[in-house]
Amino acid sequence: MAWSRYILLILLACVDKTDFDSGGTAFPLIIDGLFSTKAAEVRLSRGYRVNGGLNYTRIPGAIVWIADTDDPSWKLILKEQKLSFYEYQAFNGTIYSYSGAVTPKAGHHYVLHVIVDSNEFVSLPQEVREPGSIDNIYFTYTSGFNRDKGVEEDGLNILFDATVPSGEDRHFQWRMFGTFSVLADPAAGPERCWVTEREDAPLLSSSAFATRYAGLTARYVPITFDRFNDRYRVEIRQYEISREVWEFTEALRFQLKNGSSLFQPPFFVRKGNVISLNGQANVIGIFTASIDVSRAIYIKRSDLPRELYGQPLPANCLRVYPGSVAYPPPFWM
What we know:
With about 325 residues, this protein is mainly beta. The protein has 5 helices and 18 strands.
């Protein structure tokens, strides 16, 4: 999942429900693009009426490509993915991606192009710089009363240390990918499903520049049999992002942080770094080009501070965990 999911989380966190009416205004196209060491992917969806019930926001048939302003002969064309019903439960839009191996070059500037119907959208050029490093990933154990769930609960706080390159006006973002294998009843579906969960809110460098970040919290992970019956893989990826991407994502992070407060700020979304060439179409979009670095650890069941008991999931794990798969990812050890 990507930054676009944070907008939905902010809306769901509102204290009072509001009945929005579009008044005939066209809902914005939402563009979420990333060109990095591990991915060349653009997610397209459409804003929709909050009180509209089931909404289909897919954008099929778009033309999507990435260009290099420093190499006019280079062009990366992204193809539409055909997702299954269960995969659409995790993202009700359309994903365009490149299936081959390609990495952005340091010192180059990349631009995203998207054509939907007769409207063309382009991003501002994104400069790629040399990355820093993820130095360490570790966890601490915590337990206590969960007020939201009304139960006693224990879990792990996932922490990490990172080093970023020196220099002025540099901004960074981290993403966490927590992957685990769910044991399930084979009579109901697959015997195992592999699930990946993400950070709860954007992880960003501070506005005051530093080259060393220690003890950053990636996510709180509850200790459950589903997550730790086998092992839990934590991967942290580090990206350098432009100032406009940092400001856009920081605004989302601020809304999420204050969304459950009685004095929460009014909901708003910055436009990002993607514009409409004809100036008529409404768009909210972000495109990032970055050489990312990553680090991963496995947390085994034996690493937990207590014994863990449980039973296989008595249901089809693909349905219980939308977006999961019935085969291990390539990195699973």
